[in-house]
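thread: overnight batch results

M.L. [08:02]
morning all. the overnight job finished for the chain we discussed friday. pasting input first so we're all looking at the same thing
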Amino acid sequence: MNQAGLQPIHVGKIGFGRRFSESLLGMGWYGFCCQKPVQIMTWCSPVEEDLERILHCSEFGLWLPYLYPKEGADKVSVSEDWPFLIACRQERSSPRGGRLLLHGRVERIWRRGSRVSLSVLEAVCQNWGRAD
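M.L. [08:03]
and the structure it wrote out:
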């Protein structure tokens, strides 16, 4: 486990900023996970109505591959392709079809156009361990 108390789970590697086509929760959600320098579960939705709907749920499940920031990067940009960046704490996971279905809950949201410092993400991650 890392300093935030989250167990690293290796699902696969995709390029930075790449959108992937899996339909999450049957609502066309897109997700990614930032592992370096911190372990943090995140996902984005292109539809604000879907975002508002999921925020009323106390628990959810979604597919997440890993996404690695560019070498030397100190920020993650929330671009047109990623209207929302949402920090999600992993609560449990289960293997299914060669992938992991991760369950967690929303911790924090950044809007489109934000430039999120990785140190901020790391601080959010560290706070999870203290919250419990």
